[in-house]
């Protein structure tokens, strides 16, 4: 800011990856930033908390190899919150199905050949795996553009795989399990566009993309706490337990953010909340309800999650620290993690500590805690038989209705871009339309930086945040996409458009 000028005021709503990212950058640029969080602590569902002296969190979150911007932030903060790169396994009721190597340790092959050859399938026949080859056309055709999203978003993932000749067994034992723990819903409920975007970013773009590290404790303790300290040191105010109910709008500009009886004056506003949180704000806000783009958010949905943490009375040998599971329930995917191997505080625990998280867990939320713990132990024992003899000595069950974004078929047209129809109101989060190409926590953080850059541009002060792009497509993918675009343009010039918008 120029000497003697009044600081411009920015209000950020939501203290997850997006909100903290936007707040941190704008505070460093000299803005008067107030971060409002409805929950009792920054971080929202990701943060985690302590209860009875033990760490609890709403699910475990991985940090994948292509999270270039988050890893850059971690370096800037000077912290060391992560494990080493870990191997993962996949189980079904029949036992171990897949083991993944650490892909960066193996000779790099053109994508997706390395993923195909190095992934260790225990039961899935080669002929079924080969049935995925025609799907590569859709991977090439989907380039994350607006046109590509509109082409594929009305198609379900199940239809996509069927239309491209993927075998029923490959779909059932590989692709749908990925959807259940990646997009958190069965294939008939997932947009084909979101499916292609997620699969490409995490698995298919480059051989190393599926490599993952985990936080060595709760994300709140290991990352958000030192980050918030740095944010407050930069001059921003972080205010938990402040639920936003409305905006004060004058001449198409937000002049203030309303929290019950409090009003926070603003020269710009950034929303950084999930779909469910945003819908709650719209439901109480006459200003937002006056705009169709915000009313249309009622067409978007979210997925129920069940997060459990179990303490067992003995050490159990678990081959891999992170594991995904399928086939136990028709429409639910689940994961389990060996916290003795991942979290610092449990390394010397005399027993075994397991985190088991269930996605699209609608049918479980009405059960009582003991019923849920019994189901979790039975499922664990199917994967690792030693759990049958173990006794649960403590447990935590957290029900999270409508907790994660649901990318349903046809939802793209209702998702908001970073710029809204209000001149100084900007959006961020993992469900916002953007062209960076990332997903999940990385996408949320990137959209927070993008929203901060829109504020810098709008208010005309400060330097934009540097956003690291996703790694470029490999040369053979670039050539294939260029040829595909040429053929598509040529086809449009001589053929009618057979696709509905």
UniProtKB/TrEMBL annotation:
Gene3D superfamilies: FAD/NAD(P)-binding domain
PANTHER family, per database record: OS04G0560500 PROTEIN, PROTOPORPHYRINOGEN OXIDASE
Species this chain originates from: Amazonocrinis nigriterrae CENA67
Biological classification of the source: Bacteria, Bacillati, Cyanobacteriota, Cyanophyceae, Nostocales
GO terms for MF: oxidoreductase activity
Stretches assigned to the Amine oxidase domain: 18-455
A Pfam cross-reference name: Amino_oxidase
Protein name: FAD-dependent oxidoreductase
Ranges that cross the membrane: none
InterPro entries xref list: Amino_oxidase, FAD/NAD-bd_sf, Zeta_carotene_desat/Oxidored
